[in-house]
Amino acid sequence: MPLYEEIEIEDMTYDPETLMYSYPCPCGDRFKIHLDDLWDGEDVADCQSCTLFIQVIYEEEDLPPLPDEDSDSEDEAETKLKETAVTEENIIKAVDALSI
Ligand SMILES: [Zn+2]
After folding, report:
1. Rg (alpha carbons) of the chain, rounded to whole number
2. Domain 1-65 in CATH: superfamily?
3. Cα of 93 to ligand 1 centre, how many Å?
4. Residue 39 alpha carbon to ligand 1 centre in Å
5. Measured in angstroms, how far is the CA atom of residue 71 from the centroid of ligand 1?
6. Domains of the chain: which residue ranges?
7. Could you say which of 1, 29, 55, 58 would form a disulfide bridge with 9 (CB–CB 3.0 to 4.6 Å)?
8. Where are the beta strands (DSSP E) in the chain?
9. How far is the CA of 57 from the centre of ligand 1 (A)?
């Protein structure tokens, strides 16, 4: 994968709707990286139409905060974990009942 360029995040276009940073690719498409990935320490934006990619130069303090939506999905994952635990508990109870 060829590195096309290193781009300052200030030079990229931010779309608050999709939370995507993008930058024009010489192939006519755009390099894209999600805000989520930037917060995760990911700094490589790639182009879906070719093999080029760019390295994004940024500091975490330059990033807009992630919207609340994201913490909602974390809550969902936690709920699912709890549901799984309850289910396992029920299975253990069921197995106990069977062995009696
Ligand atoms: Zn491209």
Report:
1. 22
2. DPH Zinc finger (3.10.660.10)
3. 57
4. 24
5. 32
6. 1-65, 68-100
7. 58
8. 3-8, 13-15, 20-24, 30-34, 44-47, 53-57
9. 19
